[in-house]
Every structure is written in C-alpha cells, then in structure tokens.
C-alpha cells in the first residue's frame, strides 16, 4: 500500500521506539518524514536507518528556544505537513513527597508545553486533510503510585485532543490521539534505573498485561498511520487505545 505517497510527516521523538517505527512505516508507504530528537548523534543514526526520504532536526521538545525555531527548520524542507505526530518524551517517577520542582517542570515542559507550542508553530503548514496525532498513555486511566506528574502531563495532552479538535475543525484538520499500553521501547533508559532494574521492572509488569507481552512499536505505528489515513476520515477528537486492554481489564 502507498497511502502516503509524497505526503510529509513531522514526528517528534522519531529517533527511537514508536516514533522511529512510525517514521519507517510512513516512508514504506511513500511518504517523507522529518524526525526530531535531542542530539545530532541520535538524529543522524535514525536518518541513516530510515534512508533518503527522512530528514532529521535536533529539537528538544522541552526547550522554548527550540520550539520557536521549529517552523523555520521545517520550512527549509517543506511548506506543507500532512501529519504531525506529537510523540517525544519519557517518564520519570517519584512519590509525591520526593518530587521536586525540577521533576515537575521537566515533565510538563517536555510533555505538555512541548506539544502545545509545536502544534502552534506548525499550524500554518497544516492544510485541510492534515492530521495531528498526540501520544498519551494508558496511565491516565488509573492511579499508579509515583506516576502523579507523568500521568497528569499525559492527561493534559488528552485534553488537547478535545480542545484542538474543537478549534481546528473549521480548518479541516483532524486531531486524534493514541493511548499506548506497555510498549517495548527505550522508555526506561531515561528513568534513572540501571539495566538490571529495568529488566526486573519489565518482568514484573508482564503478568499485569492482558496479552502477557509488551506491545511492539510497530503495533503503535499501525494505529498512528490508520488515524492519519483516509480510512479514518470521520474520526476526530478520538483517543485510540492500543494497549492490549490494560486500561479496561482487571
Ligand atoms: N513505552 C511505553 O510503554 C509507553 C507507553 C505509553 C506512552 N508512551 C509514550 O510514548 C512516547 C514515545 O516513547 P517511546 O516509548 O517510543 O520511548 P523511546 O524509545 O525512548 O523514544 C522516545 C523518543 O523521544 C525522543 N525524546 C525524548 N525526550 C525528548 C525531548 N525532550 N525532545 C525531543 N525528543 C525527545 C527520543 O529521542 P532522543 O533520545 O534522540 O532525544 C526518542 O526518539 C513518549 O511520549 C512516551 O511517554 C510510552
């Protein structure tokens, strides 16, 4: 299938995990992809893997200077975006008593302020028929100890799906989100846990997943591309759970 022939996507956090998998599939279906990441090393490594239809920008989702430069950087490559996938980020976890201001500001800057202003910046490049897709998380559906700031940040993003859908409907821009469950990515590498602690954490979470396995990044990419495609032409303001049912099964 070539659903995205000559279309352009901007994927924040496209150097790894779900963003990289989505970039790979978008290109496989005929599109061009601009990915962002925090360092030239990770961005270059990813664009080397993705090949000639990929372009990389060093842009930190939590950095105001970078956010204000984003449209200019993108316009050096294209004047139109068909898909913006707001995906960049990671979690950090702390009990309420231990979470300090830096923890709060780091997560809210990257996960809430980042996608908000990235959309604001990129809006002039989005035409009728374009799609905005946010990456939230199943964690918004439940109370998990130590997740207060991360879950609140993702809940704010859920709210953007609805308000942006309301505001952008007159421009013909569809706004939706995906809510992943436990997906096999590098997400734990930013948590401060060491390799053994990460392995233990993953081993412990597997029994809690209805399918008894983590999702593959490609399974998220399929959902993102569906929402971005013409097959989803009547889907707007929705959040698609791609989580093996973990948000609703107890
Ligand atoms: N994995 C899960 O189980 C899970 C579940 C629900 C939701 N999520 C969400 O899914 C999204 C993608 O994460 P992932 O699981 O695919 O993890 P990942 O493999 O670690 O990928 C994260 C991506 O985000 C980029 N990134 C991180 N911080 C950034 C920043 N400040 N500015 C720009 N780019 C940044 C990373 O690039 P660089 O390292 O190159 O900067 C990388 O490309 C995140 O929003 C995460 O919260 C993950």
TrEMBL record:
Family: Belongs to the short-chain dehydrogenases/reductases (SDR) family.
UniProt keyword list: Oxidoreductase
Protein origin, superkingdom: Bacteria
Keyword Oxidoreductase: yes
Pfam family for this entry, one: adh_short_C2
Keyword Cytoplasm among UniProt keywords: no
Protein name, as recorded: SDR family oxidoreductase
SUPFAM superfamilies listed in its UniProt record: NAD(P)-binding Rossmann-fold domains
Matches recorded under PANTHER family: DIHYDROANTICAPSIN 7-DEHYDROGENASE
InterPro entries to which the protein is assigned, alphabetical: NAD(P)-bd_dom_sf, Sc_DH/Rdtase_CS, SDR_DHRS6-like, SDR_fam
Origin species: Flavobacterium cerinum
């Amino acid at each position: 299938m070539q659903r995205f022939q000559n279309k352009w996507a901007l994927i924040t956090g496209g150097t790894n995990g779900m963003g990289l998998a989505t970039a790979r599939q978008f290109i496989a279906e005929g599109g061009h992809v601009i990915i962002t990441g925090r360092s030239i090393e990770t961005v270059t490594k990813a664009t080397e893997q993705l090949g000639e239809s990929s372009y990389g920008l060093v842009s930190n989702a939590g950095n105001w200077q970078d956010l204000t430069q984003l449209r200019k950087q993108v316009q050096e490559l294209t004047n139109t975006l068909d898909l913006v996938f707001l995906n960049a980020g990671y979690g950090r976890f702390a009990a309420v008593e231990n979470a300090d201001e830096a923890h709060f500001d780091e997560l809210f800057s990257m996960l809430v302020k980042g996608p908000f202003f990235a959309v604001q910046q990129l809006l002039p490049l989005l035409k009728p028929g374009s799609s905005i897709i946010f990456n939230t998380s199943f964690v918004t559906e439940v109370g998990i100890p130590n997740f207060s700031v991360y879950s609140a940040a993702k809940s704010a993003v859920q709210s953007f799906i609805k308000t942006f859908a309301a505001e952008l409907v007159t421009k013909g821009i569809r706004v939706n989100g995906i809510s992943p469950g436990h997906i096999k990515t590098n997400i734990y590498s930013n948590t401060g846990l060491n390799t053994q602690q990460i392995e233990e954490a993953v081993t412990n979470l597997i029994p809690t997943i209805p399918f008894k396995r983590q999702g593959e990044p490609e399974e998220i990419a399929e959902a993102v591309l569906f929402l971005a495609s013409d097959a989803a032409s009547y889907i707007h303001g929705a959040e698609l759970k791609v989580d093996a049912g973990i948000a609703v099964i107890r």
